[in-house]
Design goal:
heterodimer; A: 306 residues; mainly alpha; globular; B: 282 residues; MetI-like fold; 0% strand; Sulph_transpt2 (chain A); membrane (chain A); Sulfate transport system permease protein CysW (chain A); transport (chain A); cell inner membrane (chain A)
Chain lengths: 306, 282
């Protein structure tokens, strides 16, 4: 019985080998694709590049952090200085991001709903912080608020500290994360036009009602996407914050600065432990970002759709 | 669509023009424009000769050369491999593709200090990659090569993410037409596909370059920071700040800003040229 049932599945013995089907019946057109070994070679090269520059650095953060076991790891992330750094990082992001949300919404509204002179200039000025070195971003606030800066003497007389204190860290973070939200919103709102808003207004809605009930629901996923990128950068900013923080341990240390301090003191396990927390934040950000692109791709700006 | 209808602001039915534009410009001025102008005023205090003296000091020149040179090499590496990665993602199917696609944006999301210590651990002489390179006599960590590695990492997403959508939208019919007219696959790739993606590659290159030229966090750990050899320009600004030489720090910042601007204008010009060229091909 068993031999009988298997026979029909085999090739007919009469068929010569050269006529037996090889591979899939429908071949891809060889004129518009590459031969298998070229494909294999290209994929292997690309993956090797990504392995050396992306995957291995990421993996090494976690292996270095856990090299001396879980006890060392947990101690490193729960000691008072580390906890204060985590608090500082969250506080900075919690202040800087809402400001940039307000700016992003206002700028996108003005740019996409109205025509005015100098609009192109405004759009390129919004991108300016991306082409300024983070260290220069820190430097400019020292020049403005530092002891010898424009407002330095006045601030000193009134005992207000901006640089080498929390306000400086927050403002420097605002600078480097400045374009994120506006950049996500402007292209999307440009595509959407003004028809919905005009309809709402003609039906008697007030300006704020139109914004809250018509515009905001239309852009909510793009806004969330921008907030996500903005938050990730705000929590991870190093260069700008490093210049204005003054590195006062347990007071003006954010997580990235704490990583640097531990690393320079040769406390590698501790440095990588705090770094691994930041890496986990980054991975969560990437996961949420991919989810938004996959699930709500239609409601993001065209360049974000996959 | 709505943009084609020219509308003067006062006659628009949509409210909030004054408020939204006013707030945007106020915030932009307070956070970006006014503080940034401080660099110009502070370095102007040095006078023209003083400014040039600072910028053309050997140590500053070496640092500027390293920052911009390494950024250029890193951006070139990314232009080649980023285009390859985008091509592989769009055209082929292989296991783990979605995972790698999501990971491409890691350099945006991972704090630069974390990237810096991770790359150092990886490429130092006892690291996973560094030990093999060391056996070949190549030292990466604590040399200018390390700066290039960090610049490549930090600029990696730009080229991939600008080329990917262009390749996705590319019309397969053009390739089929080229093939049916007797072009070999290599000819089709170099004369049909590459010219079409070239402007996107240049955009990605410019973004990667601009980002890497000013980069600090991921570089200082791997660079070794030896004056004249592996010291980058942003670090020099910090050193001058620590010496309370604010004018000197501003002068280096001015040099960096002007160099970035000049190179971005140059790349912009190249893009216009590349677009015009593709337009002619079509």
């Amino acid at each position: 019985m068993s031999t009988l049932s298997t026979v029909p599945l085999q090739d007919p013995p009469s068929l010569p080998p050269e006529f037996r089907p090889q591979g899939p019946l429908i071949r891809r057109n060889s004129a518009v694709t590459e031969s298998a070994w070229v494909q294999w070679l290209l994929v292997a090269t690309a993956l090797l590049f990504l392995l050396g520059f992306l995957l291995l650095p990421l993996v090494s953060v976690f292996t270095e952090a856990l090299r001396h076991g879980w006890k060392v790891y947990l101690d490193a992330i729960s000691e008072p200085d580390a906890r204060s750094a985590i608090g500082m990082t969250l506080l900075t992001a919690a202040i800087a991001v809402p400001f940039n949300v307000a700016f992003g919404l206002a700028a996108a509204w003005a740019i996409t709903k109205f025509e005015f002179r100098g609009k192109t200039l405004l759009v390129s000025l919004i991108d300016l912080p991306f082409s300024v070195s983070p260290v220069v971003a820190g430097l400019i606030y020292i020049l403005v608020f530092g002891r010898n800066g424009w407002f330095g003497p006045w601030l000193f007389d009134h005992d207000i500290r901006i640089v080498f204190a929390i306000p400086g860290i927050v403002i420097a973070t605002m600078f480097v994360t400045f374009p994120f939200i506006a950049r996500e919103l402007i292209p999307l709102m440009q595509e959407q036009g003004t028809d919905h808003e005009q309809a709402a207004l003609s039906l008697g809605a007030s300006g704020w009602q139109t914004f809250r009930r018509v515009t905001l629901p239309n852009i909510k996923w793009a806004l969330l996407y921008g907030v996500l990128l903005c938050t990730a950068r705000a929590m991870g900013e190093f260069g700008a914050v490093s210049v204005v923080s003054g590195h006062i341990r347990g007071q003006t240390d954010t997580m990235p600065l704490h990583v640097e301090i531990l690393y320079n003191e040769y406390q590698f396990a501790g440095a990588f432990a705090v770094a691994s927390l930041l890496a986990i934040f980054a991975l969560v950000t990437l996961a949420l970002k991919s989810y938004l692109e996959w699930r709500h791709g239609d409601e993001l700006a065209a360049t974000r759709r996959h | 669509m709505a943009r084609s209808i020219k509308r003067r602001s006062p006659h628009s039915v949509i409210p909030g023009f004054g408020l939204s534009l006013g707030f945007s410009i106020l915030y932009l001025s307070l956070i970006v424009l006014i503080p940034l102008s401080g660099v110009f005023f502070k370095s102007a205090q040095l006078g023209w000769h003083g400014l040039l003296d600072v910028i053309f000091a050997p140590r500053v020149l070496a640092a500027l050369r390293l920052s911009f040179g390494a950024a250029l090499v890193g951006a070139l590496i990314n232009a080649v491999f980023g285009t390859l990665v985008a091509w592989v993602f769009v055209r082929y199917r292989f296991p783990g593709k979605r995972l790698f696609d999501a990971l491409i944006d890691l350099p945006f999301a991972l704090p630069t200090a974390v990237a810096g210590i991770a790359l150092t651990a990886l490429y130092s002489t006892n690291g996973w990659i560094g030990q093999y390179l060391d056996a070949l006599g190549v030292k990466v960590a604590y040399t200018p090569l390390g700066v290039i590695v960090a610049c490549t990492f930090i600029g990696l997403p730009f080229v991939v993410r600008t080329v990917q959508p262009v390749l996705e939208d590319a019309e397969k019919e053009l390739e089929e037409a080229a093939a049916s007219l007797g072009a070999s696959r290599l000819q089709t790739v170099t004369r049909v596909i590459l010219p079409a993606v070239l402007p996107a590659v240049l955009t990605g290159f410019a973004l990667a370059f601009a980002r890497a030229a000013g980069e600090y966090g991921s570089i200082i750990f791997i660079a070794g920071n030896m004056p004249m050899v592996s010291e980058i320009a942003p670090l020099l600004i910090i050193i001058k700040l620590e010496e309370f030489d604010y004018a000197g720090a501003s002068a280096v910042a001015m040099a960096m800003l002007s160099l970035s601007l000049a190179l971005l204008l140059l790349i912009n010009g190249l893009q216009v040229w590349a677009r015009r060229r593709t337009a002619n091909v079509r």
